[in-house]
Amino acid sequence: MTYSNNTLARRFRNGESTGQSANMEIEEDSDGFSVVWGYEWAVYALRTPNGKTYAFDGWSDYSKSTNLHISLLNCRQTTAINQRPESIDEARELISLTA
Q1: What count of other Cβ atoms lies within 10 Å of the Cβ of residue 58?
Q2: In whole angstroms, what is the distance from residue 64 CA to residue 43 CA?
Q3: How far is residue 29's CA from residue 27's CA, in Å, rounded to a whole number?
Q4: Of 4, 7, 45, 87, which is most buried with the most CB atoms under 10 A?
C-alpha cells in the first residue's frame, strides 16, 4: 500500500517499521533499526531498536520537497543531526557519535 508523505511520516513516528509513499520508504534492517529512505538513496531518519529516533536534517537544504519530508519526520522526541548519510551504516555511525 502506498501512503501519503504525511501518513508515512506519522507511521514512522509511531513506531511502524514498514511503509511506502511516492518519495519515501520505511524499512527495517536485520538488527532492528528502522530507516526512512528519501528517493531510494538518502537516509532521512533512523530509529534504533530501543525506539530513539534521529532525523538527518542536513538534507533540509537539498530541495524544497526534501525540506518538507524532513520537517514531517521531526517531532519533539527526535534528535536532529545536521548530516547527509547515504547508507544505513553511515547513519548508524553518525548516531553512535552523538551518544
Answers
A1: 16
A2: 16
A3: 7
A4: 45
Q: H or E stretch including 59?
A: none
Give the Cα-Cα-Cα angle 90, 38, 64 (nearest 5 degrees): 115
The answer for residues whose C-beta is within 8 angstroms of residue 9's C-beta and 6 or more apart is: 24, 36, 69, 72, 73
H or E segment to which residue 65 belongs: helix 64-73
Given a cut of 70, whether residue 99 has pLDDT beyond it is: no
Beta bridge partner(s), residue 78 = 53
Q: Residue 96 — φ and ψ, nearest 5°?
A: -65, -30
How far is residue 81's CA from residue 55's CA, in Å, rounded to a whole number?
6
Distance from C-alpha of 60 to C-alpha of 62, rounded to nearest angstrom: 6
C-alpha cell, 31: 538488527
